Amino acid sequence: MAFPETRLRRLRGSAALRGLVRETELRAGQLVLPLFVREEPAAGAPEPIAAMPGVARLTIADAVIEAREAVELGLAAVLLFGIPAAKDAAGSGAWAQDGVVQRCARALKAELPQLLVITDVCLCEYTDHGHCGVLRADVEEPEVDNDATLELLARTAVSHARAGADIVAPSDMMDGRVATIRAELDEEGFAQTPILAYSAKFASAFYGPFREAAGSAPAFGDRRAYQLDPANGREALRETLLDVQEGADMVMVKPALAYGDLIGAVRRATQLPVAAYNVSGEYAMVKAAAAAGYLDERATVLEILTSLRRAGADVIITYHAKDAARWLNEQS
């Protein structure tokens, strides 16, 4: 039926009506808070990250405090990124038993056993060249050696699981890493540890502030030889479905805000839970615009996160997580 019999505004007349027919729900329990944990100095105040107001590099003790607040706010989980004291060509700090992520995971599980701890599995923060894998020695131009990197990623994932990580999340974008990690986890007695694969991870301009935060900028070149071309949606779906075949338990699209079409496409292509990473550059843009008075931060953040849920994300990793949880809790 057409107007005047059909009037879509009838269900928009009050907050109660709008709430009754709202299609998309956003809850604190769907949000994951990323934490940057530094190895040195082991004590001292958090180190603010200039490009990400409100985010800092934390000691392990500070990370426990942040995680406790996350639990109190009802957040789903934390995602750990390690900042080691030393780096080498192989990124050996990534799988060290006493590495910063491993020690932080143990501390978090000891203090907050109910908290889900997700660990980022990659070598970029631990290599002295800043790439996500080891380099080939048999070529003149530096190149990441995909196959030689796989065992190191698997070793890292096992070390995280052994330290108490509830979920391991490989973000390196090497071919075959999900299958290799799954096999190693199973062999080492961690068959119940899920893999959250960074499946559709694009070579994005939105990562700039993260590289400042984690000290992980490449010393040469860039990561376009292994991360996805932002122009390629079909290839992103191929990557995702390959990760599903290899044993991923959850898949991710990263970044989030400019990739809602891919979140929706992945949601339709698989029955696995889908995560979206609302990345550092997306966070920084909102913070800068809000600080300048150009937009309402609360309304903007909640609209962005709701849009990611509407696109199909079951889980959202976001630096806005604590603020968003407070705002959502105030509404309930």
Set down the secondary structure blueprint.
Blueprint: H1 15-20, E1 31-38, E2 47-48, E3 56-58, H2 60-73, E4 77-83, H3 100-111, E5 116-121, H4 146-163, E6 167-170, H5 177-187, E7 196-201, H6 208-214, H7 233-246, E8 250-254, H8 260-269, E9 274-278, H9 280-291, H10 297-311, E10 315-318, H11 321-331
Parallel strand pairs: 1-3, 1-4, 1-10, 4-5, 5-6, 7-8, 8-9, 9-10
Antiparallel strand pairs: 2-3
What's the domain count? Answer: 1
- Structural class, please? alpha/beta
Low-confidence spans: pLDDT under 50, at least 5 residues?
none
Number of helices: 11
Q: Indicate the CATH architecture.
A: Alpha-Beta Barrel
Q: What is the CA-based Rg, rounded?
A: 20 Å
Largest sheet, described in full?
A: 10 strands, mixed
- Give the percentage of residues in beta strands: 15-25%
CATH class: Alpha Beta
Q: Taking all residues together, what is the mean pLDDT? A: 96
Shape from CA axes?
globular
Distance between the termini: 36 Å
Number of DSSP strands? 10
Q: From N to C, what is the helix and strand string?
A: HEEEHEHEHEHEHHEHEHHEH
Looking at CATH, which topology would you report? TIM Barrel
Considering the protein shown, what is the CATH homologous superfamily? Aldolase class I
Helix content: 25-40%
